[in-house]
User: Fold these one by one.
Assistant:
Number 1:
Amino acid sequence: MTAELINWILGGLSIGSALMVVFSKHPIRSVLYLIVTFFLVSGLYIMMNAQFLAIVNIIVYAGAIMVLFLFVLMLLNLNKATEPKTPLLVMLSSVGAAGIFVLVLIAALKDSFIQKSGQVAGNLNAGMVENLGELLFKKYIVPFEISSILFIASMVGAVLLAKREKPIID
Amino acid sequence: MDTALLIEKLVLVVLLFLVSLGIAAYSTYFERKLAAWIQDRVGPDRAGPFGILQPIADGVKMFMKEDFTPKNADRWLFILGPGIAMFTALITSSIVPWGTDLYLFGRTIVLQVADFNIGILFVFGTISIGVYGIMIGGWASNNKYSLYGAIRASSQMISYELAMGISAITIIMMSGSLGLTDIVKSQHGMNWNIFYQPVCFLVFFICALAETNRAPFDLPECESELIGGYHTEYSSMKLGLFLFAEYVSMFVSSAIISILFFGGYNFPGMDHFSGNTLALLSVLVFFAKIFFFIFVIMWIRWTIPRFRFDQLMHLGWKVLIPIAIINLMLTGIVIAFHEGWFLN
């Protein structure tokens, strides 16, 4: 009962702060609300007994990626005067695209709600480090390694792009 | 959840809070005395015998000063910054195992607030959030020097977190668990990790200095270039919280270093004791180790000059991370050899 109540509170708060990300006027405020959202989502992970996922979510997203976001926004020093004007057509089309995205999400998730009650009871400790490790390094080893190669490729690509401005001397 | 457990943990939390603040307060006194000793001066000696009341005088002074908020500052974030810095510094100590079990009133009392399944990762989580205190405070001040301090802090933290994480993974591989209790128990007696992983310790220690913004890595507040860095615009107890958070995190990181590499509360010959005597002795030994590391960190501050920012980045990315990765690979190979992977 208490757990369900906490779940509802966390869910409500995370939707609220996610909405604040969109509605905040100031980009820095938006990023800060996004960080709050990550924390609340981590709280939901903990309620699902997935401590590892919760802390990795905080370390990677809230702790590293969002710091970089904040870093770039602070350097850009965005304000009303420098903000580029968005044409009406672009605004309309982005609203349309977002609407289609929501539609796809609802279509994808509508069945999962029905199955939920039966599946969660399956393995309560699935989110613990040991079980997650077993799963990642045994059953899903190939996709895991391929995704890490993908990350290395993107890192090398980023370094290559950053270094390109230097004149190449043969 | 029974009431006795709740009371027990509550007492532990309050005690831990007071001890952290007390040690942080007296670290400031100790640091000034040490600096004076290294530079052949007298140091604070007016308030009380040997200046022992100096931290209290400092605290009162901090509260009495005018609390000034700059006109163009973001008011709420300006208040939030020091709060986050202090919060993240304090919360890390909740996971530290302070000693072996105590036996009081017929109950076994575990001297640790919470033993999470994720253990050491929790420490990394709080470290990675800790940078927000400085970033938000620095940005909200609306001052270019504060902003420079904030930007330096964030890039420094992200760079050194990587090498720190990789060296911690080496220790996790050695003990086979993420939990700090298991890491400490695997170093029973004199079986400390420092004897197996000296390189790893060096990398971790340097990164810990950088993460707590201590000299020679105190670039974010570098007074000769940035006036006061991220806390230029802060005054009164808000400034006090920033400065205090640094000392609290110094205390906690000393504790983490002792746990990972110097056996935590373990000491040679601990098998001869048992029960409450062992618990008391282990706590004392642990605090002795912590004080030693606090001393070493201060000693480094008054000995080595500050890095230049490009040197800092060079050290982080091109020296520490490769060393940590090579060390990790070698450890992996040795462990695999021990487990008998290469024998058939």
Number 2:
Amino acid sequence: MSTLVFLEHHGNELLKPSLGVLSKATTLDQDVSGVVLGSGVRGLAEQAGKFGAARVFVADRPELEAPLPQPRVDALAGLVRDREFDTVLFASSVLAADVAGGLAARLGAGLNWDLTDLVQQNGSLIGKRPALGDTVYVDVGWKDGPRLALIRPGTFDPQGVAETPSVEIEDLEPQFEDFSLAATMVEQAHAESEGPSIEDADVIVAGGRGLGAPENFKLVEELAQALGGAVAATRAVVDAGWYPYATQVGQTGKSVSPKLYIACGISGAIQHKVGMQGSGLIVAINKDPNAPIFEYSDLGVVGDLNDVVPKLTELVRQRKS
Amino acid sequence: MTRPADFPPPYTPEEFVAAPSDPAEERIDVGVLIVGAGPAGLACAIRLGQLLEESPETAARFGDVPVAVLEKGKAVGSHLVSGAVVNPRALRRLFRDRARIEDMPFYGPVKHESVYFLTSRSALRIPTPPTMKNDGNYVASLSELSRWLSQQAEAGGAYILPETAAEKLLVDGGRVRGVRTGDKGRGRTAEPLANYEPGSDVTARVTVLAEGTQGHLTGVALQRFGLQGENPQVWALGVKEVWRVKEPLDRVIHTMGWPLRGGRRYREFGGSFIYPMGEDMVTVGLVVGLDYRDAELSVHDLLQELKTHKLVQRILDGGERIGWGAKTIPEGGFVAMPKRLHAPGLLLTGDGAGLVNVPALKGIHYAIESGRLAAETAFAALQRGRTAWTPGALASYDESLRSTFVWDDLKRVRNMRQAFGKGFWMGGAMAGAMTASFGKFPPGNAKTERDADQALFKTDRASRYPKPDGQLTFDKLSSVFLSGNKTRDDAPNHIRVEQRVPRELALMWERMCPAQVYEAKEGAEDGEVAVEVTPSNCVQCGAITAKGGRLLPPEGGSGPEYKLT
Amino acid sequence: MKIAVCVKHVPEQSKRIDPATKRLDRSGEGAINPFDVHAVEEALKLKEDRGGEVVVVSMGPAGAQDSVRKALAMGADSALLITDEAAAGSDLVATANVLAAALESEAPDLVLFGQQAGDSDGAVLWAAVADRLHRPVISQVANLSVADGKVRGKRQTEFGYDVIEAPIPAVLAVSDAINEPRYPSLKGIMGARSKPQRTVSLSELGLEGGVTGEAGSKTVVQALSDPPPRGDTVKIEDDGSAAEKIVEFLAERKLV
């Protein structure tokens, strides 16, 4: 087995989900390589070593500056062919999904997506994919290599293995197709949200339509602050303009898996469930006793969140001080 | 004493009668317009297709769109629920040698049948009453059967138009000219949204109402043309589930008795059915007359309770619930039928016309037969030299229906349902006597009271409903979810009820509704309370219309999306 | 401008995976993938603004005709349905091979996809098709405009919104936040029947066996299993002390 992990970065950091996949890969394969594609990203290669990469390929090119998929497909296709990687792993993201889809077509390779685990079974690699609203788990495999996989973000935690890693860094000189450079980034308007990003947060407090009004998000924000966590929102309230899109959890938003997820006024439709059910512990507060979220909460509180949440915030603050 | 009828909804049939309003060039003009893609409407469309194929010269008189069928559900079958054990007689008459019963989506013929009288702990097998015998009948999902029928109708040239509610009856110069379809894309307070799409006038030479139980325009037409029968219509509410099971069931089962109470004051008339659907599925349902009086009665919860009986539990053991649905059934029978089934330019068919044989638990074959006869009447009325819309031009429909088995059957069992208002045992004895005397006993026609006329009382019945465990027993919301209902929350309210009523009545609605649409809000213990309505949960069973409210057609394409019911 | 919209017919009925074939049970009724309706709407808007035509392209069983018809009822001009027993069980690359061949023959200026398949949760097909077609791709598009031979899309990502531009012809995947799809008018529904609808087999597209279907697929489904059980759930009613109970619960688990 020879495994390559696509290491996505944002700003000057490798993303946690990518490092989690890298850590997982080192448990399946002795010899795991990472690849960083961007502009001015050579320094990031060192970071990858800490999480077990034996070798990191770096393509440091202006064509790779913007987070666009197609030049990355070119770079990866060349690398996978030259070095005969049989497995290429991605932590799923908007960018990674497009890169993986394009790479699968380019290499004529099999791609399995939305995996929540990877295991070796009788010498072959098997991915676990929850399907049909997570009511069934499907074991998926590949007929032959290269085997491409997109892993649900947050499935694996990064495990640091070495403080001072000895990582081998190799530069790549990718060839780009004309059509791959046709799309250009006009404007990269990142909506910076306060506090930790929800995908990296250990604690998430999320609000839904049950809050009743946008100003009630204040209750959620205060609780999140007390717990040192991030604020998330459901599709319904993001659509209604109560909270920014970057905080949306669910099928069309982000998938998160914090240690603690507190759902306030969220009914828990399947679209929301798929984005947060990987959470370690789920606490739900809702006044509707029949809300579906209670079916998959560890602790469900039937009650008025206007009473419960401020009290909870106060108690958490007391404990911390 | 609280009677639902004393708190009528804000509703008048006149709101739903209009003259065509679209400019002539924008109207959609069809030959025969059929409202409702159930067995009656589709049989009508199929028969018209056959007749037009045989007679191309008549087809020209029907226009560019000879036959159109409007269906308010997302697809054909989306709003259909039935047992169902189907008597194939009317299908044979409809298709003759064009299709065999074996080609239709049936789950096979009934092989064995059993009838039980239940108590909470025991099941006493009793002889099958003659009216309930099912030799030669076939098990079906009406939703599936109708999808097949719609394919046949479409192959015969009919336009099947789902996601389209018929909202107003177009009447002009004393004759029915067609219908106006409902608007789409309105908000909660009826304000037009960005994707607002107004309804259209659909005009036709003949309009056939095949809306089924609680037909909206059927009710409007009965009033507008003074067609009501001598007795008011009454209804039952049926709730059923479809299960995937481990062991095949080899028989159809009916039960009487538990969990319904026999005492006369309760007026709990009904029973359950358990039918095999092939080797790996079973359907189980419970039907209860809506003239019941206890505000705590919930057919959905009684069905859950029924499943805990060991007779039923054994059948479902290790299985999984895969479908759920609820629908009312017109049970007034012969004496509650409209006095005429036609008006100028209009024909009434199927359940909408009350063609249901309550003791036999059958109506689908009457719907099909009435649809077939409606097609023949409409076709004949559109021949050269005839005018379909003059008074009496469609009278041959009533005559032909009177000469078929439909009329004979219904007349024979005409007082059966009314007898059960006298309590289970008395009613049972009278039903036996009626059966033995082919309807000649008791003489005359029994009087029916409206379901909404029954005074309510409240017991503690609900405290004994089983707590939903998510395996065998389920709550209402998860059931609505399983019905496929994806109605948007901001759709306009299509349910009319008086919103401040005595607590007892509000509670009755809350319990009655299988889809958790009504909620009695807090208020004084014995005073009036507010009723909160969540219309997006509604599965359009029609129970509210029987019990003091009014169900109107919702936005086309909304409501449940039944597949297997 | 010619716009092709790729629509998928997704099963609605039983939502189960057939244990024998390990494929999604597509025997029951299906419907147009709800995400694709937004792509149809966006194509119709572009056509209304700029003129041109909208062609619906779908690959699926014969029943996919229903989904195609829905798009035609909304206002698309014509449809191409690729239906072939040999295409059943196609994975990503096998599907992309077929769609790319069909799209090549249609030669549209823009190809639109919905952002996700409602049945398989897949969100990668456009990238594969764009690669096969050698065209630029923009995904997750929440806002789209066309000017001067270029298409500009605002994309939702984990970090906010990007604006990306690409020369036409291009491939785009639109998010369901991009528009509110129209309801088909009754005239539209009735007119859909008479619009040009072609059904083609793989050989009519010039494709040989082996590039699609199970044979052309590189991924396999090995087994099905139940999801891991969650721990017991505790449900309490707030009697004024719920906040204390939550804190206790979290403290026991060292989360506060």
Number 3:
Amino acid sequence: MLETKDLTIRFGGHAAVDGVSCAFEKGTLTSIVGPNGAGKTTYFNLISGQLPATSGRVTLNGEDITSLAAPRRTRLGLGRAFQLTNLFPNLSTLENVRLAVQVKSGKGYDLFSRTLTHRELIDQAMAHLAAVSLADRAQAIAATLPHGDQRKLEVAILLALEPDVFMFDEPTAGMSIDEVPTILDIIAAIKQRGDKTILLVEHKMDVVRSLSDRIVVLHQGKLVADGKPAEVINSDIVREAYLGSTADHG
Amino acid sequence: MLRSILSDDLPRSRWLALALVAILVGLAVAPFLFPGAKSLNVAAKICVFIVLAASFDLLLGYTGIVSFAHTMFFGIGAYGVAISLTRMGAGWDAVAVGTVAGLLLAIVLATVIGLFSLRVRTIFFAMITLAVASAFAILASQLSDLTGGEDGLNYRLPAALRASFSFGDTLFGVRLNGRLLDYYLVYTASLALILVLLRIVNSPFGSVLMAIRENPFRAEAIGYRTVVYRTIASCIAAATAALAGALLALWSSQTNPDTTLSFDIMVDILLMVVIGGMGTMYGAVIGAVLLVFAQNYLQDLLAVANKALLGVPLLANLFHPDRWLLWLGVAFILCVYFFPAGIVGRLRQKR
């Protein structure tokens, strides 16, 4: 279980995330919604360790991880896919995923064996690529992939980390309509396994509605609503903060 | 077999493969093909600089670390052997002590610099290494009791490596003496070091280094502690540079700041790596061969051109042997302009 207690970060006087307390249970998918600048990605950064919290705590399975660096949190089971595609651009698609598989294997400090002799890492990486239907692009250089494929690769890297907590930051942003289902199917499949915690930041309300067990609304860094999708989406405070504006043109 | 020796990093270009075989064989038979003190000296220097450039490429090309302290480690290795040979006499025990001492000092220094400063941004790290290396060079020239100051040290090599040592008559007209043994010591050690580096960059560890070069932020995010990896890479590069320095000291029987610690050498190895192709061990090999050759023979070549153009007023002056640095500069600019990915990058592109 992942939990944040009074989690806060201040940039100067501005609190980008302001005293957010929230617990995320195993086997549930929680969507975090809110208008642009509400602090969703910053909240993610605090959880996965890209930013240090000003105050408050983050605990994973009862262990306080607030002061741990990002790599350590990843190895403890926090996996994160990034909003802006964040790959190893000049390495092959396969190598991008293989590097993520390699973290778990603990072979990173192996100096004297040949990478190519570790077939099992390559096979696992290929399996993850197949899961996002990128297997046929395995040898392509990541930077040369079209945007949609780069998003899929981002998700494949997250799958390869085999985390307990999956954090998706707008996984379908910028994807063409026909590519979106691939990603949603993957998220649904992870949820199906029942033992993973999933956090999703997403703007497409139909996606949020259909996938979420629960919706948390952030507004100006504060948690303003929390509950079942049907309740939250129809609550006044959410309409005012967020949905009211998008409902007009959504 | 070949795949295993080259750690799956095949040349992937016919011309590159040809060039590498030519270098490997050429250096192996150099003493017989080009007898004479100067050519043997050039061949040995090529061997040493191949190792030095390759170890620098581990930092620059593979890990994305810009360090100006690489010659410092080269100098530490050279002075280690030079000082111990001066103090302990010309024995193999002195060579062993000097090599190990240099190696240890290099690794300790690289670790300290790494842990303290590899967290900062590339440009600041480069500045820090520049400062440390300059301080070290000044220290080396001022501790003249130990290092011989600006003049450096002249010392006797172990008996088996001297010209006076003979282990047979002649072979193909070449005297079988200690210099020949010394050359093959340098050659074999360099070849072994290159193959070790090739293995390291093609290992799971090496793959993490390239990930760090590509995107350190993401490498952290998927669970690699980049500071630790960068520091280990710095240590390996420093240790290899120190060994290259030890080989140079064992070859030349004199060690001074100009030949080991100077900033000119730092620029030379930077050029070797960039011309050859960053991020490929073979690039360092090609770059080192080309640059050492140019430094030693460009003047001779220009002398020939100068003679041929003796009557022509402006051109004769332009091709005067003293202008060799100008032409080296022109060649470098052309190289970077036409092969931004280096010679090896270009050759592999064409496939």
